[in-house]
C-alpha cells in the first residue's frame, strides 16, 4: 500500500516534468532508480530518503545524457555556468530544453530543503549541492574531451571519473532524509572523500566502463576508460578488458 502511494507521488512528479515528450534523447529511468533505492533502504521510516534519492538520481541521469549525447559545447558551457551559480535567475541564459532540467533540479533541492526544515537540518542540503557541482564539472570535462577529439591519459580520466561515478554525490544525498542517523559529522566525513568512498568510485567507474563502453560509443559518448587505456598502452580491447585495464587502474588515491 505504502509502495503504491509512493508510486503515485513519483508518477505525478514525473508527469509534471513531462521529460519524455520534451527531451526524447534521455533515458527515462524513474522506475529503475526508484527500485535501486528501495534496495538501498526499504524500511518505512526512510520514505523521505527514498524520495530524495530517487529524484536526485533521476535528475542526474537526465543531466548525464544531456552532456553525453545531446548538448552542444556552447550549450553545455552555459549549463555548467548556471550550475555553478545555482540560482533560478541563471536559467534565463539557457536554451529552453535545458531550462526544464535546470529548474527541475532546483525544484528537487527546494523540496529537499523543505523536507528537512522540521528537523532544522536544511543546511545539510549544501553538502549535496557542492557534490552535484563537482559531478557536473566532471561531465563538462568529458564533453570537452569529446568535442576536442581528445582521449585523455588513464590517470586524468580516472581522476575525473571519481566524480562522474557520482558515488560521492550519492553518498552525500542519500543521507539527507535519514533523520538522526545523518549527523553533520557524517556529511563532513563524506566531504573529505575518504579512501573507502574513492575506491568505491573507482570500482564503479571501471565496471560501468567495462559493461557499457561499446553501447555508449554507439550513442556518441565521450571516450571511456577502455578507450583511454587502449590508446595509452597500445593494447587490443580484449587485453584491456582482461588484464592491463584493471592492472593499470590500481590507483593511488587520485582524488586530491
Ligand atoms: Mg556520462
UniProtKB/TrEMBL annotation:
The keyword RNA-binding does not apply. InterPro entries: Isoprenoid_synthase_dom_sf, Terpene_cyclase-like_1_C, Terpene_synthase-like, Terpene_synthase_metal-bd. Keywords: Metal-binding. Pathway: Secondary metabolite biosynthesis; terpenoid biosynthesis. One of its GO terms (biological process) is terpenoid biosynthetic process. GO terms for molecular function: magnesium ion binding; terpene synthase activity. Signal peptide: none annotated. Pfam families: Terpene_synth_C. Residues 15-242 form the Terpene synthase metal-binding domain. This is Terpene synthase metal-binding domain-containing protein.
